[in-house]
Amino acid sequence: MICQLLTVNGHDDYCPLHQERHPGHLRKFALDPGPKGEAFRKVRDQQKNLKIVRNLMAQDLPLIAIAMPCSSCTQPPDPVMAQHSIISPSKPISFLSKVKHYVGAQLQHISGGMQKVPEDVRAHRRSFCETCEHRDPEKDECRLCGCPLHRTILGDKLGMASEYCEAGKWGTYPKEKGKIPMSHSLGKIRPYILAIPKRLNELQSTLERWNQSDWPGDPIVCMQHPDLPVNTQLDRWRATATNSYNLIKQMWKDDLDYGLFTEDDIEPNKHIYWNLVNWAPLARGEINIASLYMPNTVEIPFYPTREDRPDQECEVAIVNKEENWRIPKPMNGKFPRHNLWGSQCYVMSKAFIKLCIEQWWDVPGGQDSRVNRLAGRMGWPIYYHAPDLVQHHHPDSGSNFNSPHHVSADFSATWKSPQLTLTKDK
């Protein structure tokens, strides 16, 4: 298959398959259907695969080889779907590190006016720590920071407004209601596009729409390898799960604070970057996983009371209209796929990116199902922006995965949120 060249940053020779430009005479070989072109593309494929292997080996991640069977089951390994990972609890930190962290936390607490959080917020923080892999159950303390997770004479980490979780599961508490501490920002953030070779026209249109938005810089395209089988629905699920994993690995390699996991057939809001910068829960550092898109066919209601939708059997959802977010509560502790699905645009924190790398192959399904399951494992809420900041522009694409026709119900291309009121740290 010849290379399909796209126009990116004013250059019309970018190849999404090899994720590089083919300028000058290389363009001729890339488009040559004959033996010279085949030889050129074979070499490029080998170089790309070698680069991927080197990148995986360079990262110090606790991953077992793909073909190794899982020690906890007797099923033969599947080279694509049945990769397993080792989750090792953190080693306790040294006494000196504990002292340094304690002194720093106390100074921050004093400089912030020694503000304490309400009891319901403290209980919410504690719920994350109860099931955290970094908690030492015997000492009831965190192995990452060394702090006790209960009240002591020396202090109360969970009750201090200035404290935050070292694993990113909960953040600091705002000093003033409705105001955001200035110390929090998006940091390093970038969109990544999950692309399929047969949808190059949609990809080109999506890249153009990103260029028309206020996003600083260009998205990274992660193209699915054309040699992956896609004949059956199961094959297509495996292929897209593999490509999704490669995309998330690239996020981790780029050392992001937040990564946008997007698809190749969307339209971003014109002010998407502004809206994210001024999104209160993201600015406060509360979000580990969020979605900027909700299909109009989902069954779960985003209403504050059950009485608004008595026909639906689900728990009450949390809605904050002032801060433009909504959080669905799971049914029976899970986010069912028929209630929450669609991966048109996720916002992933560094902690969630790491979680995906470690546990992606431990859960089944497509990328949206895996994201929901992993968030449920950690007890992390899935924030949904209201209104949607992304529109689906190829609504029939779900037919390959047995998904219904869907678009956003409340997307507005020109919607712009008001600027957050900031407050300087004391």
Verbal overview:
With 426 residues, the chain is α/β, with parallel strands linked by helices. It folds into 3 domains: 1-42, no CATH class; 95-173, no CATH class; 189-423, Spore Coat Polysaccharide Biosynthesis Protein SpsA, Chain A, CATH 3.90.550.10. It contains 10 helices and 17 strands. It has an 8-stranded mixed sheet. It is elongated and about 75 Å long. It starts with 5 loop residues before the first strand and ends with a strand. The relative contact order is 0.12. Mean pLDDT is 75; it is low at 52-89, 175-184 and 300-316.
Task: Write a concise keyword list for the protein shown above.
14% strand, 17 strands, elongated, alpha/beta, three-stranded antiparallel β-sheet, Spore Coat Polysaccharide Biosynthesis Protein SpsA, Chain A
Overall tally of structural domains: 3
| Poorly predicted runs of 5 or more residues | 52-89, 175-184, 300-316
- Class by SSE composition: alpha/beta
Q: What's the CATH architecture of the largest domain?
A: Alpha-Beta Complex
Strand content: 5-15%
CA radius of gyration: 23 Å
Number of strands: 17
Helix and strand arrangement:
Elements: E1 6-8, E2 11-15, E3 20-21, H1 25-30, H2 35-58, H3 95-111, H4 119-130, E4 135-136, E5 141-142, E6 180-181, E7 189-195, H5 200-212, E8 220-223, H6 233-253, E9 258-263, E10 266-268, H7 272-277, H8 280-283, E11 289-291, E12 318-320, E13 325-327, E14 345-349, H9 350-359, H10 367-378, E15 382-385, E16 390-392, E17 422-423
Helix pairs in contact: 6-9
